[in-house]
């Protein structure tokens, strides 16, 4: 990945879940928020609800490939967390790639389309 480094710290994941913007899909939910860096930081979250280790690894692989294919479309300077859903274990990276191309890139490049996470 050219413009992206890994996002590892749990506090960054929690901050994005609580205060970030989000874009839902059947395969994954993308949480994002601007950072003060000149590059993106990306992390992938897969829970045990998705399935065993093989399915979780496949979901991460497919999501990572879809992100890699569309990385150049996304603006720089964002923290991004992608939370996988069960459907990501049975789909192809092309389906998620189309989601990144049509929805994620469009919303992240146009601030008027952003949805903020609601506190309950």
Molecular structure report:
With 120 residues, the chain is an alpha/beta fold. It has one domain (4-105): 2-Layer Sandwich (Ribosomal Protein S5, domain 2), CATH 3.30.230. It is built from three helices and five strands. The chain has helices at 10-19, 53-70, 93-109; strands at 4-6, 21-24, 28-34, 40-45, 78-84. Helix 2 crosses helix 3. The longest helix is centred in the middle third of the chain and has 18 residues, at 53-70. The N and C termini lie far apart (36 Å). The model has no long low-confidence stretch (mean pLDDT 90).
Strands in their spatial order, largest beta sheet = 1-4-5-3-2
CATH fold descriptor: Ribosomal Protein S5, domain 2
| CATH top-level class | Alpha Beta
Structural class label: alpha/beta
Order of helices and strands: EHEEEHEH
What's the alpha carbon Rg, rounded to whole Å?
13 Å
Biggest β-sheet description: 5 strands, mixed
Low-confidence stretches: none
Q: Which oligomerization state do the chains in this entry correspond to?
A: single chain
Give the % helix: 25-40%
Strand content: 15-25%
